Amino acid sequence: MGVLVAYLLGILTAIKHEHHDRDSDYNSSRPPKDQPFPNGHLNVTCIPPSPSKEEAAEKKKSKRRKAITFWVQIGSLVVLLVYAGFTILIWCAMRRANELTRKQLEATTAAFLRIEVLHSLQKEEANFGLSLANPGHAVARNVSVEFIVTIRSLPDERVIKSVSPPWSLTIPEMEASPSPVPGELYAFNLSSQEVQALKNTEETVRLEGKITYDNGFGKQVRSICTSALLGEFKDGGNVDTLYNCSEFKSRLALFLAEKSERDRKH
User: Fold this and answer.
1) What average pLDDT does this structure show over 166-176?
2) What's residue 29's pLDDT?
3) Buried/exposed 115-143: b ≥16 CB within 10 Å, e otherwise
4) If I label 192, which of 68, 86, 119, 147 is the partner at 20 to 30 A Cα–Cα?
């Protein structure tokens, strides 16, 4: 009986100590109520959930669709540029063909006015005039001719004086004919002193103007500029020629060099 009581007391004592130790461990693991939270930021890491197989497949399909759309757009742009290039080439070829056809048609059916400067150099006088003709194939309409004549010093081609006021002529219609309009349209004479200056190659006569007319295909404008190169050599030779203004300066330089050489030998 005494042994049994002692055994029971020993078991109760062991249970009490175990419960006391558990309470002590629980209390030691809990922070004190008056202990403050640590200062600073708390690092919190969020781990997203792993995508499912359906979501991964859908994402892959979306990327593939975007890539296909991008390359389709690039291909469409290339095709459009190639088409535009071929269209421009075809348009340019058609334009050149139309222009060539138009020129050929003009050459065979249009009006064409020809104006010439007439001149004659006598011993003590020089005469100049204009001649107008329509050797084309149609009637020329609204013909307008404007001219001005000046005397210029050489070799600088500085204007000395105007021979007369500007001259103009208007013809409503001009039939096609290889023959010029009867008579000289414009004529003027120079004084003996001016003629001598021309012979000495000290001066030149320049005729400048323009002619406008409708040749049946539209308005045409032609500019005309002519300078007279007159001169005599000491050995008896002479030059009496009209040159286009664009080549007059070079022709004058050649003539003066030849004149100096021939005069020196003479």
Assistant:
1) 86
2) 47
3) bebebebeeeebebbbbbbbebebbbeeb
4) 147
Angle CA 173–178–183, to nearest 5? 70
Pick the CATH number of 114-265 from 1.20.120.420, 3.30.930.10, 2.60.40.10, 3.30.565.10: 2.60.40.10
> And the tokens for 46?
């969020």
Confidence category of residue 141, pLDDT binned at 50, 70, 90:
very high
Q: Dump the DSSP string for 100-120.
A: HHHHHHHHHHS---EEEEEEE
How much of the chain is helix, strand and coil, in % rounded to 5?
45, 30, 25
Q: Is the peptide bond between 32 and the residue preceding it cis, with omega within 30 degrees of 0?
A: no
Evaluated on CA atoms 24, 28, 29, 33, the torsion sign reads positive
Separate counts of helices (H) and strands (E) for the chain = 4, 10
Total-model pTM: 0.57
Residue-wise burial string across 63-78, b where 16 or more C-beta atoms lie within 10 A, e elsewhere:
eeeeeeeeeeeeeeee
